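Researcher: Re-running this chain for the archive, since the previous output was lost when a drive failed. Same request as before.
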Amino acid sequence: TYDLASKCSVLLAKDFVHNTFTVILNEETSNSRSLYVEMNQTVMSIYPRLKISKTYNFSFTEDNCQVVDKSLEKNTTNARRETNKIEISNQKGVSLSCDFQYDLCTVTLAGWHHGISAGLFGTNDNEAGNEWTLPNGSFTDNVQEFTQSWQVNKCSLVPKKEKPCPITAKQIICKVFFEESHSLLR
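Model: Regenerated structure tokens:
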């Protein structure tokens, strides 16, 4: 168990050999957290407290402006959504599930990911002595040094300026149907 006192995004786990998955805990504005999960060409952002998720598919994205809800079956990544739970997995033996009711997310790796991943979740090689491996390959026994070493941003308080995406008529209709608080489809 780690107490992440900082407001920085951290790398939880990544396959550093075959690059089959990446899981990042993002610190969002207003003290909210999200999980960034990347598998193959698919990225899923999961917001457990808000009980929502967004899926992006690099093969269909133009200028990173479209959120795509296409079938992920073609992409060897499967996503399944239930009322209080979401699961995402790939054919390489990586799965992540989040139970929104209990605010609990789990990452499961198959045996062939033995010892090829790293991050705050450790090295996944059943060796207790090297769980706190730093990105440079050295070891530490200091929890603050360990958690800070896996930060993926500079933790600046200045918000990044992003190029706004043009809003289309379809996006406006979707927003009215699915995002407005008075909508029955929300």
